Amino acid sequence: AIGTWKEVGERIRSSQSASFGSAIATARRSFRSCRLCPFTIDGRRVIVGSPEHNCTVNNATATSCGMATVYQFDEADYQWKQIGSSIEGSSVDERLGTEVTMSPDSEFVAVGSPFAKEGRGSVHLYRIVQNHTETP
Asked: What is the pLDDT of residues 82-114, one digit of tens each?
């Protein structure tokens, strides 16, 4: 063997989501669990899909609406930290996060919802927006 694998930072875990990690993407290309592929260009940002996550929609629980969350590795703390808010589906059985991908610069993400729109599916595109104050 050439070497051994060492985990980078603490494991990214979700206490609120079923199927967390069933879809993972980095800035280079997306992959599903158990497939071999390269990580990000710098290895510091990842998006994780959780298609069986339950959401609250109109004050009721929507089963399997899905969720996607972006994390960035903080070398100073040696931990993965969530970037922005989690992206949640908006309807029962939408399964947002079944497929996820990220642009090469990690600024944009695309999240698939294969069962949205009464089973026709949809793709949601997002851009990270930093908190700032605009001046006229």
From this structure: 988 899 998 889 999 999 988 877 888 889 988
Asked whether the predicted pLDDT for residue 33 surpasses 60, the reply is: no
Can you tell me the distance from the alpha carbon of 66 to that of 118, in angstroms, rounded to the nearest whole number?
15
Give CA–CA dist 14/51, Å, rounded. Answer: 13
The H-assigned helical ranges of the chain are 116-119
Cβ neighbours for 26, distance < 8 A, ≥ 6 positions apart: 38, 39, 40, 43, 45, 46, 47, 102
Q: State the alpha helices, DSSP H only, in 1-134.
A: 116-119
List strand residue ranges (DSSP E) for the chain, in order.
Answer: 23-26, 30-32, 45-50, 55-57, 60-62, 67-74, 79-88, 99-102, 108-113, 122-127
